[in-house]
Amino acid sequence: MITIIILLILAGVMIATLTGENGIINKAEMAQIATDEEKIIEEIKLGYNGVKIYSNLKDWNKDTEATELEKELTNINKTDDISVYKENLKDGREVIIVEYVNKDKMYCIDENSAIHECEIEYFLGDIQQETLENGEYAIFTLFTTNSFIFCDDDTNYDLLPSTNKGEKIQKNMIWNVEIEDNKLLISTMSQGTKIYVERTRTFVGYGYKIGLSDTEFFWNYKWDSGAQNFRVDTKVVSKDYALRFYNSATGWITTSKGMGIVFINVDKEITIID
């Protein structure tokens, strides 16, 4: 009996040694995480040193630097899940953001070329009025008494509790808008590739489904001064089909009956973790 008790005690000690907070397994996992972090930072350093040698070239700027760094890191890491772009800190400093999409990790390179882990939070800014400019926007519409925001996910919409300035939103609610010849290109980035919002050829009883494609798709748009919002549509044969939220079953589609669309600027807050 005493032998059994001693064996149980030893087994408990062994399990604690292996799985406890300071156990061998936990320490091994933490060591692996630290190793992965070091590997990522070394990759970024290697890629950044590779592009900095061109920084004295004519027309070189932070946007060019970000584009070239993304190419370098994609080549080093042999993957296309890396996104690199320029952002501004609250104090006005420009930094380069390096985002490892599949690893859910984000780093920034500051003006001294130091690399920090960071995170970005997104908030609704001012509502865009009368004209649209190239930039990032949250896109929503008022349906009955609720505001539905356009999302980059399977359901393509979410119910927004408030459209007030300062309301926190998710990254998949942010769209890049470009104006070309008075038409709209609405896009987002997916694993390093720009994909565009398009009207598909799939008819769902009320209108056409909205999809994402790597091919440019142009939308017409105009400001409605009475409703104080935009109409966004595309022509099918001789009829205009407008982008709109329809219902919870179909989400955002295009229909012959229009609906006002609101574009809200996006404010970002970058926090350096280390």
Q: Order of strands side by side in the largest beta sheet?
A: 10-11-12-16-15-14-13
- Rounded radius of gyration (Å): 24 Å
> What integer is the average pLDDT?
84
CATH architecture of the largest domain: Trefoil
DSSP helical segment count: 3
SSE sequence, one letter per element: HHHEEEEEEEEEEEEEEEEE
Number of domains: 2
Strand percentage, roughly? 35-45%
CATH topology name of the largest domain? Trefoil (Acidic Fibroblast Growth Factor, subunit A)
Distance, first to last CA: 54 Å
Low-confidence stretches: 24-33
Instruction: Tell me the number of strands.
Output: 17
The major pleated sheet works out as: 7 strands, antiparallel, barrel
Give the proportion of residues in helices.
Answer: 10-25%
Based on secondary structure, the structural category is alpha+beta
CATH class of the largest domain: Mainly Beta
Shape: globular
